[in-house]
Predict the 3D structure of the following.
Amino acid sequence: MITKKSSVVGGGYSNRTRATKFNPTGKKRKYPNLQKKKIFVPELNKTVNIEVSARGMRTMKKRGTYATLLKAGLVKAK
């Protein structure tokens, strides 16, 4: 929710395969690095369970946990 990351479909052909013959490599769904975390929010004086990507954790560290969760709509304003 914080970074709005979702899964993407990767794979396809290498350039070498395109140049020689038709030989599909298949598609594979790639998922973001989501982790379940229990975070204490001092402004609310309670703990929040969230599923956040590694990039989202860096964002929370930079902007502040409460501000980031509030902007993402994961917590309500006090």
Notes: Residues 54-63 form the longest helix (10 residues). The helical segments are 15-20, 54-63, 65-72. The chain is about 30% helix and 30% strand. Residues 8-72 form one domain.
